[in-house]
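fold-stage: in
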Amino acid sequence: MAYPLLEQIGSAQDLKRLETAQLEPLCAELREFLIESVSKTGGHLSSNLGTIELTVALHRAFTTPQDKLVFDVGHQCYTHKILTGRRAGFDRLRMLGGLSGFPCPAESEHDAFVAGHGNTAISVAIGMARAKKLKNEPGKVIALVGDGAFTGGMVYEGMNNIDTLNNLIVILNDNKMSISKNVGSLARYLTQLRTKPEYSRAKAGLETVLAAIPLLGTPFVKLLQSGKALLRRGIYHSTMFEEMGFQYLGPVDGHDVLRLTEMFTNLRDQYAPVFVHAVTVKGKGFKPAEENPGEFHGVSSFDPSHLTDPDVAPDASFSTHFGNELVELAKENKELCAITAAMKYGTGLQFFYRRFPERFFDVGMAEQHAVTFAAGLASQGLLPVVSIYSTFLQRAYDQIIHDVKLMNLNLLFAVDRAGLVPGDGETHQGIYDPAFFSQIGLPVWSPCNYAELSYWLRMLVERGGGPRALRYPRGAEAPSLAALGCTGKPFDVYTTGKADLALVSYGALTEEVLAAADLLRAGGRGVDVYKLVQIFPLPDELPAALAGYNTVAFAEECVAVGGIGEHLRTALAGCGWAGNYVHKAIRRDQKLLHATVPEMRQALGLDRDALAAAVEGKNA
C-alpha cells in the first residue's frame, strides 16, 4: 500500500513542514499503516488507533526531545515512533533486534521514559517538569494518559503534588465518555477561548492587580474564582482537576487534528499546569477494534479480512483454559469470586464474567486495590481468586504481605504470564513472583500443561486455609509437556536408568530441560529429570530423593537471587549433600529482550544447548 505523506516523514521536523490541509490525510495514512503493520507483526492496536490525531497534533506543536512526551501506558506510542523516524522498523516490531513496543530511551532520544506499567506518567512528568525548573531548562513536559490509568491511585497521588508547574500539561485520553451536543458546543467555545495566550496573560494580570488591593483584593479574587467554579461545575459536572491546581480544558474532540494542533500551539504559552480532557474512540477507524477494543488491545498477527468473535472462538491458551475451568468450579462453589485488574480478556475471565457477572470484579488498573479488596472479601468468608499478570502483581507486594499474608486469609492468586513473556520486553517479564512469594512463605504451584492446571486449580480452590498461588505461562501448552499429563504428585521423576545427574525444573521451562536431558543421554550421560509442580515450599521428599546424585542442576525462568533454586541449594545442604550444584536462572546483569521465548531463553542461557553445556562444565 502506498503512503505518499508518510513517506515524507523522516523526523518530527518533517511533520512541521506539511501544509495544514495535509494533516487529516496524514492521520488517515497512519491509521491504514498501523492496521496493515500490526496485523502482520502483532502488537497493541486499539490504543494506537485511538491516539493518532493527538500524537500528530502534539508533535506539530511541540519539539521533542526538548519538550518531553511521557506516555501512560506506553503501548500508545506507535504513532510517536513513526513520526520520530522509526517507521521502517515496524516490520520487526517487538521482535529480536527490532523496535520495542513501548517507549525506550535506549532506542531514541525522543522516548523520554520507560512506560510499560500504568498510572506512572503524571508522577514522572511532575519530576521532569520540576527538574526543568531547577535547571532553568526550556520546554514543556506533556503526559498523555489513557483513561484506564485513572483507575489507579498513583495518578491522584501525582495530581496532588503539581504545585504551580506552568511547564506541565496532562492530557486525559478518554475513550469511554461522550459529549452531549448542547454541553459540547459551550465547552468547545470556552476551551478555545481559554487556550488563547491573550486570555492567560489577561487572567494572570487581572488576578495580580486585584490581589494587590488592600483588604478587599484577595477576597474579591477568591469570589471570582468560586463563581467560575460554579459555572464549570454546571458545564463539566466536576471541578476536581481545577481544585487540584490545573487549568482544565475540555472536553475536546481527540480526533480533530486541526483544532488539537491549534490548542496545543497556544499552550506553548501557559501560566499554570494544564489538564486537557480529550475524548477519543479506542480502535478508531477499524470497526472490529471499535466494537471490541479489549480484544484488540494486544494482538498476535491476524488477517483483517477474516476475524472471529473472541468470546466464541478464542485461541487455546493457559489463560482461556484457566477461565473455563474457573467457571466450572464456580458452578459448584457459590462463594467463589473472580477479580482482575483491567485484564478481563487477557486473563481468560471473560467466560466467568458472562456466566457469573455478580461475582466478577474488574477493578481497573489498580492492582493494590484488587489484592486488598480480595482480602476484604476473604475476611467475610468468600473465596476470591485474584487473576493478575505476574509483572503487574509486583505492584501489590505490600498488600500481599500486609493485607493478606499477615491475616492468613483464604484466597488464591492466579498468576498469569508467569516466566518469560514474548514481545513485550523488559517491562512485562514474569520472573520475580517465585522469589517474592517464597520470601514471605506463601505456597506456590507451577503447572506445565493444561491437565496439571485443571487438577491443581481444583485442589487449591478446595483446600482452604491461607493464601496460595498458582502460576502459569502465557500462550499455549507445549506438545511435549502436554504429553506428560498429570499425576497429581507434587513432583514427577523421568528416568531411563542409573544416573549421576539430576536436572530439576518447573513450569514451561521443563520443555528445555527434557530436551537437554535427551541431548546429554545421546552423548552417553545418565540423566534423570525432576519436574516440580509444588515449587514452594519444596516437597518434603525432594531433598532426600536428590541426595543420591553427584550433580544436581536446577533451571528456572526466575531471578537467580531469591529464586527457587536457592531454596533447593539450602535444602540439599541441610541434609548433608555436598555434590556439584548448578543453578541456571536470570542474573542481575542480564538484559531482558523483546523477542520470542526461545530467543530469550537462548540469550539468557536457558535453552537446551546451554543447559546441557552448563552441567558438563562448559559454561557458567
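fold-stage: in (second)
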Amino acid sequence: MSVQPGSALWLLRHELRLFWFNLSSGKQGSPRRPAWRVLGSGLLVWLGLHAGVFALLRAIGPMGGLPPRQFVIAVSALLLSTFLFMLSSALKRSVETLFDRGDMDLLLSSPLPSRSIFTVKLAGMAFGVAALYLFFLAPFAHVGLLLGQLRWLALYPVLFALALLAASLAILLTLALVRVLGARRTRVVAQVVGAMAGALLYLLSQAGNLMAQSGGVASSASARVMASLQSVDPGSLLFLPARAALGDGPAVAVIAALGLLAGLLTVRWTHRFFVRGLQQAAGSARVASRAGPVRYRFDRGLLQLVIIKEWRLAWRDPHLISQILLQLLYLLPICFVVFRNNQLQLTIVAAGLTMLCGSLSASLAWIILLAEDAPDLLQSSPARALTVRMAKLGAAVIPVGALVALPLLWLIVRAPLAGMLAALTMLGATVSAALVNEWTGRPATRGEFKNRGQRGVATRLLELCSVLAWSALAWLLQRAATGAPASLAFAAGLGGAAAIAFGILPLAWLLRHRVR
C-alpha cells in the first residue's frame, strides 16, 4: 500500500517497520534483517498454539447466553493481570520514546505537525504493547472464526483498547514525572515504577499473608477476592471487560470506545507538553556542562574509590536499577513474615533470604565484574589488580548485606540459632555467586544484562546450582535446628546440599580458564 510521504499513515508504517526489525533481528547491534531462525521458531510455536486452541474450543463447544460466573471471574483476573503487565511495558516504552530513541529532534524539526507525531508515537506504543498478548490470544480468534464461534473475534478490539489505555496512562505518568522531577530523574523513576507495576500482581496475591493477624489463618488476597466475587451478578459493570473479551457486543463497544477516548484525550491535552518534555530531555544532557568546574578528590583509598565508582555507574543506569529492584520486591513478603508473624516460619524465611541474596549477588557481580566499561584502563593503571578485584567484589557484595541486614537482625533477636544459621547460608550464597561470575564469566556490555545467560551458559548453570544448593542447605539446617526427626533421607539430603554448595567454588576455579 502506497501512502503519501509525510502523512500520519506513512509515519505509522515507519514505526511498525522499526518494531518489526527490533523484534526479528536477533541480538542487539546485529544488521536490521530478519533472523529466520527466530521467525521460524516463533511460527512453529504459533501454529502449535493454534492446534492446542482448536482442541480446547472443540471440547468446550459454543457458549450460548451468559457465561458461568466462575468463568467470567477467571477471565476478569486474566485481564487484570494482562493490563498490569501492559502498563509495565508501556512505561518502559514511553521512557524509550522520550529519552532513548534519539529521533525526536529530527521529527520535531520536520514540517510534520507535532500532534501527528504524538498520535503516531502513541499508536506505535500501543501496538508494541499489544503484540505479545496477541501472539498468545489471537489463536482463539482465528480458531473461533474457523469453528463458527465468532464471539472470540472480540479479543482483537479488547486487547487493542487495553493496550491503548495502558499506553495513554504511561505517557501521562511519564510527562507528569517530567513536570515534577525533571527529565533526568524521570528516566530512573519511570523505570522503577514500570518494574513495580509488573510485580504488583504478585504483591497483591501475597497481601493476605502480609496483613494476617497473629493466631489466625492467613489466606491470600486473591482467595478472598475470589470468594467475595461469587455473589456478584455476572452482568455487573465490574465484569464488563470480561464480557467484552467473551464476545458480548455492547460490552465490546464500550471497552473499545473507552480505549479510543483515552487515546484521543491524551493526544489533545498533552501533545504540547509532550514536545516540551522532549526538549527538556534533550537539553538535560547539557546541564552538567554548565554546572561549573569539576572538583577532583584524591583523599580516599583505592578500595573506597573503586567501590563508590561502581555504585555510581550502576545508579546512573535506570534499566539496571529497574531489573535489580524487581528482585527486591520479592523481599517484602519475607520481611512481613519475619516482623508480623508470632510463629516464625524459620525454614521458609531462611531459604527465601538465602535465595534472594544469591540472586542479587549474581546480578550485581555480573554488572560490576563483567560489564566494566573501561577494563583496559584499569589493567594499565598503577593499582594492583588484586586490590581492584577485591574492591569490585566488595561493591557487589556489600549492597546485598545492607539490604537484608534489617530482617536478618530481627530474626537473630527473635531466634538466635536460626538467625545465625541463616546468616551463614546467606553469606555463602552471596560470596559463591559473586566468585562464580568472577572466575567463569565472560566480559560483556551492560545492555546484555537480560540476555546474559545466552553468552555464559556455564556461568548461569553454576549460579543456579549454587543458589539452589545454598537455599536447600538453609532449609535443611533450620529443620535440624528446630528438632525435626532425623532420618537417612534427611541426612542424605543435608549432605548432598552441603556437598554441592561447597563444591561449586572449586569447580568454578578449575573452569576459570576454560570458560574464558
